[in-house]
Amino acid sequence: MSGLAVFGNSGAGEGEFNRPTGISCNEYGDVYVADTGNNRIVRLYYKDGKLRFIRNIGKAGSGDGEFNRPLYVEMDSSGKLYVSDNGNNRIQVFSKSGGFLYSIDQTKGISNPRGICVVDENQRYLGYKQNCIYVIDGYFNRLQKFDLNGNIVRGVRVDEKLGRKVVLTTLDYDYYGNLYLVDYFNSQVHKFSPDLAYITSYGSYGTDDYKFEKPTGISIYRHYGQVIVSDKESAQYFWIGSDVTNFRVARIQAVPPVNALQFDFFLTEKSFVTMEIELDKDKKITVCKNIQLEQGENSISWEIPPEYVPLILPGQKYTTNVRVMATYSSYPHIEKVAKAEFVY
After folding, report:
1. Is the dihedral of CA 125, 127, 130, 133 positive or negative?
2. Which CATH number belongs to the domain containing residue 187 in this structure?
3. I want to staple 215 with a disulfide (CB 3.0 to 4.6 A). Which of 7, 67, 211, 231 is the partner?
């Protein structure tokens, strides 16, 4: 990746910024920037490779349409604007033209809001249809879900869920509605389901591949499953893939005995799954091929076909390979392989 151009200067005039934090844009050229130090939202327009200034929205204060450290901004499919008004402990909602509509404040459970993302069922490239607002708030450690009227649906303390300190900054979501939270303190990205169930974490501190240096931002292009993460020194480019964990194989115990196996595993993404048992280095038995399974805990019970029963001997050790590939990504050859041994 390389930079194309720079817009703006330091200051308080038109097209100038003071410690800008969040940014949101759409395919129609609308661009909004949370100009934190100037306590306003700056609206820009992108066309023919250039940005131009349109207007400023808001000023310093605590009234409707006024801001105290606006940090992040987000648009829904209709162009409505959602702003995390951090110092006023609220989310403010504006029309596309910049008119104040309503706010979600401390009476609804908002405190110190930071990153925000808005999901509505009319958005393009969204397989999980819902209408909601996700907010990172509290002491950089809480994820909350609200409906579009500002009523809380559920929340989770991410530090308690992970069992360690976190400093969450912002978030985004993928085609299936899964959330990706940026953790500045641990240099990680944490993945949660649309209902705020923890899925997995990616990364650690460092400069090698799959490592981050104090990441602060994330953006996901849901059409193709592309992910951009910004950190201290750079921006990193990823494709959404799938991982398989806690893979276990065991013979099913029953009376009378049956020739069957149980396969248990956890998928971090909805996936195509292929599984094989190695009899020796040249011969394998296919348990399943490219079956589609959901994200989360999965179990497969497999009755050994009669022609294979003589080949799988009691007391012998075998290795099972499972290959998983995300159903959603335009980079179709990212596979993860896991192995598990079992004694039949």
Report:
1. negative
2. 2.120.10.30
3. 231
- Residue 254 pLDDT: 85
Considering the domain boundaries, does residue 326 fall inside one? yes
Listed in sequence order, the residues at least 6 apart from 75 whose beta carbon sits closer than 8 Å to its beta carbon are: 24, 25, 26, 30, 32, 81, 82, 118
| Structural domain count of the chain | 2
Query: Looking at the predicted structure, is the pLDDT value of residue 131 above 70?
Result: yes
In this structure, what CATH number is given to the domain that contains residue 274?
2.60.40.10
Residue in the structure block whose two tokens are 């050994």: 304
Distance CA 160, CA 163 (A): 5
pLDDT-derived band at 77, boundaries 50, 70, 90:
very high
Residues 97 and 129 in one domain: yes
Question: Average pLDDT of 69-89?
Answer: 96
Q: How far apart are CA 226 and CA 77, in angstroms?
A: 20
Cα 155 from Cα 134, distance rounded (Å): 9
In a domain, residue 32? The reply is yes
233 and 88 in one domain? Answer: yes
Q: Token digits for 320?
A: 């099972």
pLDDT band at 330 (very low <50, low <70, confident <90, very high): low
Closest by CA position to 242, among listed 214, 272, 264, 218 = 272
Residue 248 falls inside a structural domain: yes
- Estimate the share of the chain in helix, then strand, then coil, as percent rounded to the nearest 5: 5, 50, 45
Q: Which two tokens stand for residue 288?
A: 């399943």
With 0-12 CB in 10 A as exposed, 13-18 as middle and 19+ as buried, what is 118? buried
Domain closes at, from 188, 212, 239: 239
Domain residues for the domain of 287 are 244-343
Side-chain-side CA neighbours of 98 within 13 Å: the count stands at 16
* Residue 322: closest CA among 305, 306, 307, 302: 302
Structural domain includes residue 142: yes
pLDDT, tens digit (0-9, with 9 covering 90-100), for 208-267: 888 999 999 999 999 989 999 999 888 899 999 999 999 999 999 888 888 999 999 999
